[in-house]
Amino acid sequence: MREYKNFEDIERDLKLLQLQKEIDKEKVILSYNITKESLAPKRLLKNAAGSIFKNALILKGATSVLGFIGEKFK
Questions:
Q1: Which Pfam families does the UniProt entry name for this protein (predicted)?
Q2: What end-to-end distance do the CA atoms of the chain give, in Å?
Q3: Phi, psi dihedral angles at 18 (to 5 degrees)
Q4: In angstroms, what is the C-alpha Rg of the chain?
Q5: Is the dihedral of CA 65, 69, 70, 71 positive or negative?
């Protein structure tokens, strides 16, 4: 526990705590808004479509490579 020698130190620490409280509140609000935006239906559909397209390209590339390797061993 901290011991204070004067009221100025107490006031300074109270001001710092108040500012930290405001910063923490803004961080919570920002996190909430980011989460809300990331869970929006439009964003979810966009992410799902992107994943499907990316996986289709990977599958097509893998099939091509595996087909090429298979032809070499015939």
A1: DUF6327
A2: 79
A3: -65, -45
A4: 28
A5: positive
Is residue 1 very low, low, confident or very high in pLDDT (cuts 50, 70, 90)?
Answer: confident
Range of the domain at 13: 1-39
Same domain (yes/no): 45, 31: no
Q: Quick one: 3 and 35 in the same domain?
A: yes
The CA-atom distances, in angstroms, between 23 and each of 16, 31, 34, 48, 61 are 10, 12, 16, 34, 48
- For residue 39, is pLDDT > 90? no
- Judge if 33 and 66 occupy the same domain: no
Shared-domain flag, residues 34 and 1? yes
What mean pLDDT is predicted for residues 44-60?
Answer: 81
The pLDDT of residue 70 is above 70:
no
